[in-house]
Amino acid sequence: MSLRFGTLFSLSGLVLAALVVTGAASRGQSTSGTAPSLASLKASEYTRQNDGRRGELVNYSELLDLINSCRAYSKGINLLPQFHEPILTRGETGIAVFRKVSPSVVLVVMANFKDDKLSETGLGTGAILDQSGYVLTNWHVVNGYQSGVIFLKPVSGTELPENSAYGLKVIAFNKQADLALLKIEKPPAGLPGVKLGDISLIQVAQDIHIIGHPHGQLWSYSTGVVSQIRDNYDWKYEDGSKHQAKVLQMQTAIIPGNSGGPVLDNNGNMLGLVAMSEEGQNLDYAIAIDVIKDFVSRAMAVKSRGVEPSAQNPSGAQYSGHTTGLSVTKTVYAEFVVYTVRDGKGTPIELVAETSDGVTLTGIRPNAFGGFSDWSYKLPSGKTVVVKSGGTGADAIMAGPKS
Questions:
Q1: Could you tell me which of 28, 62, 296, 314 has the fewest CB atoms within 10 Å of its CB?
Q2: Does residue 153 contact residue 103 with C-beta atoms inside 8 Å?
């Protein structure tokens, strides 16, 4: 049995908070002069719609993705204040490799939402491949999670906006080789990509360098040596998933949280991607670079990606109502209730989603792509998360104003 290096976190104390409806009058969209409060939306009388249902602007799965992105951000932002640039003691080569490549290493935080409650979140490491925002990580880092976010390495300290997170999309994966290709939805300019090495140049006993997030200790450095190159190596994880690939057997210090971290040579070229360890044997393994190159080239070349199809959106019970001169469509799902508010002309003003915990997510400023440009996610503590979107997904996520 092998240990995978994605760390799971239970966030039992984190719940979704109700979205606070902002004033629509300031946007010139409300016929009444004031946008309805959540309380008034809930208190309004509704009639069940049996025919002529009006489709939701943002569907169930898209709302779930937004909620999970905010949840993942909340987990990551709690880790960032603990980050300090490591003090390197391994010599000039290690220092040079870390300084060169660490900006190309990202924190991947994933989250799930089930039965009206947060089930768990997980974190792992990823490596930026190019400035267009492609990120390489392990299949097991993202498997089983509905959505997540990517944090870039802070330039210094933990001040925003440098620590804002970015929405991600799973582009492709190879379960057998334990690889996944992600894409930052709206990548910032100037992303530094790590250079891919050559399998033919890897030598047994050569020095290697690893950067990752062991046990949530962000952007940590470790070093070691290549012990051997193993063809068609078989392993499995605690969940029973079975894998096979060419791997680098390593003698180095890697622990949970290092998953998806690059294995580097003295010039900062990637030789492999950290995957797992054999418990009790002090044997560590990384997916070899030639397997990575083949996977990445195929994933980028094929337009029809190999991503598992998402579950179909459930059909929520839909109701129509009115409040303060505005029309409201209420859609009831098992996990949350959605209120879509429109003016007298039928133009969307905002969307409010509330869970049974009394938690809210609010979208305002409808965009041209069927979603809302600005979202607000509010926690019971009063803390807020702000999401910017050019479509229906999360592009950039950041801390909101303090209450």
A1: 28
A2: yes
